[in-house]
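seq:
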Amino acid sequence: MNKIKSVVIVALCFFVFTAAQNPSEKGWIPLFDGKSLNGWKVGKNASTFSYDNGCIVVHGPTAHLYYVGDVHNHEFKNFELKAEVKTMHGANSGIYFHTAYQEGGWPDKGYEVQVNNSHSDDVRTGSLYDVVDVKEVYVKDSVWFTEYIKVVGKRVLIKVNDITVVDYTEPEHPVRDTASHPFRYISKGTFALQGHDPNSIVYFRNIRVKPLAD
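struct:
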């Protein structure tokens, strides 16, 4: 990444961080303070995650950053979540929900909402990974976009820049691959950001949640 791109990214992150300190939408609560990883925890390969002027920067070996902060005691069942995301070319990442902290490995518990616009994996941004896979590309690399997740009961709604890409209701007895996704079910839990591989560079900012009544 050249110096000009780095300066632009830093400036944009700082601008949005400043705006996010005064959220205008009632009920939305920031999960990331824009200046530290307080309230977040990662086990193995912790260096994959850093922060820089209002952004969480994801770049390094496979790792997952879990929200363990005070908001709703980091346990969410019904909620809305918004995050602004920027992917660099070839990047792969994801946002997990209803998950639980692990020291390493891919999270066993919860669903993954995909972040991927140009990686070799053709499951694209907005997918409910391995459950409802989106193959269309709705956003470009190097451009900020908003990923939105809403869970109420057994229904999961996912939007990319206000475009609904997934509207899924979990059946009473869902069939899952118990080897790779043993607990990919609606339940309750926290959120996690994915560091997929060393070649992926992804930025997250303005991560907010609105807890909903159970």
